[in-house]
Write a structure and sequence with these properties.
single chain; alpha/beta; Rossmann fold; five-stranded parallel beta sheet; 18 helices; 14 strands; 44% helix
């Protein structure tokens, strides 16, 4: 029998189990040490290091000429697709594309007080790298939640790295999704070495400007270490979910939703139920054990239930929302009588799923917003992936003579205070005779 803790919590009194649960690290120190060694090897030795570490970590023998997925590989994948899966991929692609287009920030302009203009304009990055996990499961949906956004943003070169099996094969559904979403280059390389490949470049693969996409602890650690060599999106590590529920919630549904995030297989996933209803807490605990026994990934799920699951009873929903905000989950479901009211009180969550008819899986597979979301408590400072993560923002200003003349005293005051007389003079000289 799995011992899933049920504890009481108030904002003024937090038991040790809750405190420990909230303090889960966003990064794993051991993974970071390994990632540092592998990345340095890739930086120094390029393709040879990628080959070596692909063999060591994934058990796959690759030559640099075999890194890239060919047009023939894509054609074979296309031909092998079942009609219903092909239709599902296309429908999700359409929905993600529509959401991305609706969310794109537009160029804008405003007038200055004396007739000039200023504003912002946006342009796509030139070359981005996208990591798509493919170890424990071929995350076809992650392709659509990342590559589609880059395509909508107008990025001309979209590079994807994803691991292959020991026969150098990639799941055909994943390849079809890549083709549908608009990837321009795909490489059968995974793990830390894939991050190094994209960040530093090799003789075979040119470096990218930014790396995005979810991954396990080693990929997440590697991404953090290459920050500065490339831009990054966010901390998107092992999955996590919190559910806020009252007595109206269905125990079977709540348990099923919690288990949906426990099956990813890293063992670092976190699942949290916060409820005002003790009978619900007891019922969900029983349902978790009962439903887990029937899942195909039972061993992975049970590992999470033993180490990464917690049920918390609170006195009020306000207390419950406060705990959820402190947890800052990747996914937050709200199963209460008036869920939309409580949406306004969410301060920190990657994505919010409102009401009993919005399981987290809808966000993972079809709704429209990207499912690449901050984990490890970083939702307090990061937001989920959007189309604008694939674009640059430039501000612009065009003063008239009258604008500069009006602001000249301010420029000179700052120049004097900061000791930057050349700054001040560059404005003043325009009003002096030669």
């Amino acid at each position: 029998m799995i011992d899933i803790k049920v504890v009481k919590w108030t904002p003024d009194e937090s038991p040790g189990a809750v405190t420990a649960f909230l303090k889960r690290p966003a990064f794993d120190a051991a993974a970071e040490a390994t990632a540092r060694e592998v990345l340095e090897d890739v930086r120094l030795n390029g393709d040879a290091a990628v080959v070596k570490h692909s063999q060591a970590f994934d058990g796959v023998t690759l030559k640099p000429t075999q890194f890239r997925v060919t047009a023939e590989d894509f054609a074979q994948a296309r031909e092998s697709m079942e009609a219903d899966v092909r239709a599902a991929i296309r429908e999700t692609h359409k929905r993600v594309m529509a959401f991305a287009r609706a969310g794109m920030r537009k160029d804008w302009t405003m007038f200055t007080p004396k007739g000039g203009t200023m504003g912002e304009q946006f342009s796509p990055l030139d070359r981005v790298g996208i990591y798509v996990p493919g170890g424990a499961a071929p995350l076809v949906s992650s392709v659509l939640m990342t590559v589609t956004l880059a395509k909508v943003a107008g990025v001309p070169e979209i590079v994807v790295c994803t691991p292959c099996d020991k026969q150098r094969r990639i799941n055909p559904c994943l390849l079809f999704a890549l083709e549908t979403a608009g990837a321009t280059e795909t490489y059968r390389v995974g793990g830390i070495q894939a991050i190094g490949l994209m960040a530093y470049g090799t003789k075979t693969v040119s470096r990218v400007q930014k790396i995005v996409g979810p991954g396990g602890t080693y990929v997440t650690a590697a991404k953090r270490l290459v920050y500065g060599d490339v831009a990054l999106d966010l901390v998107a590590g092992p999955s996590e979910i919190a559910i806020l529920a009252d007595e109206t919630a269905q125990a079977r549904w709540v348990a099923a939703d919690l288990l949906s995030q426990a099956e990813h297989g890293t063992g670092f996933e976190k699942i949290l139920l916060v409820t005002t209803c003790m009978p619900l807490a007891v019922s969900v605990r029983s349902e978790l054990e009962r439903q887990a026994d029937k899942l195909s990934r039972r061993q992975a799920v049970e590992k999470v239930l033993e180490k990464g699951a917690l049920i918390v009873h609170v006195n009020t929903l306000d207390h419950g929302m406060e705990l959820c905000n402190r947890f800052a989950p990747e996914h937050l479901e709200i199963h209460v009588r008036e869920p939309r009211i409580w949406l306004r009180k969410v301060r920190a969550a990657g994505a919010v799923f409102i009401g009993a008819w919005t399981p987290e899986a809808a966000g993972d597979f079809v709704a429209g917003p990207s499912h690449v979301l901050p984990t490890g408590g970083t939702a307090v400072m990061f937001s989920g992936l959007t189309v604008d993560d694939f674009r640059r923002r430039s501000s612009f200003m065009a003063f008239t003579r009258a604008d500069l003349q009006e602001t000249l005293p301010i420029i000179e005051a700052f120049g004097r205070v900061e000791g930057l007389d050349a700054h001040a003079r560059s404005a003043r000289i325009r009003f002096e005779d030669a």
